[in-house]
């Protein structure tokens, strides 16, 4: 396990301050100001090797989802990836940890978003991301120690490609195609997809 420093917040504070005292499963519509305030007042950088097994802390993971109008950037993992549990699984999100070089203790995760974006995707732009909400899933050991900050951006017709094509493939797909593989989406992606689809239905 790497000893990199990652941004974390106390799990109890996530429940008390952003969950109104109740733990939740799924994606919760939280005001961006509340999320920023939690990071400013309770955030810290801790060794990832310690945090992976400590459910008292949540590792903060910006999780941007890319659209192009009504289409979704749908990615699929190949069998070349290290985790066999993820082979052939689909994803609509690009997630990564926040490190000290990214800043972030002031609640501004812009640098972390842009870095992860360019590490995963071969793109010449960073879209204007809209914060959607907080994704919490305590049903698995991995989910119990991570907190997803879901964002959505629009490619607006600009080209997008995968960097590590041996481990991942990607292309824009209509909603019907994403829905057809929903049972093969990674958990966070499935939660984000269902939330964003429901959100669009009431607009």
- Distance from first to last alpha carbon: 44 Å
With helices defined by DSSP (H or I, 4 residues minimum), what is the helix count?
A: 6
Task: Describe the largest sheet.
Answer: 9 strands, mixed
CATH topology: Nucleoside Triphosphate Pyrophosphohydrolase
Oligomer: single chain
Round the mean pLDDT to the nearest integer and report it: 92
Unreliable spans: none
Proportion of helical residues: 25-40%
CATH superfamily: Nucleoside Triphosphate Pyrophosphohydrolase
Radius of gyration: 16 Å
Structure write-up:
The chain is α+β, with helices and mostly antiparallel strands and 203 residues long. The protein is built from six helices and eleven strands. The chain has a single domain, classed as Alpha-Beta Complex (Nucleoside Triphosphate Pyrophosphohydrolase). The longest helix has 15 residues. The protein is globular, with a radius of gyration of 16 Å.
Topology (elements, then pairings):
Layout: E1 5-10, H1 11-18, E2 26-28, H2 32-42, E3 44-47, H3 48-51, E4 57-68, E5 71-77, E6 90-91, H4 110-120, E7 121-122, E8 130-136, E9 146-154, E10 161-162, E11 168-173, H5 175-180, H6 187-201
Parallel strand pairs: 4-9
Antiparallel strand pairs: 1-3, 1-4, 2-8, 4-5, 5-6, 5-11, 7-10, 8-9
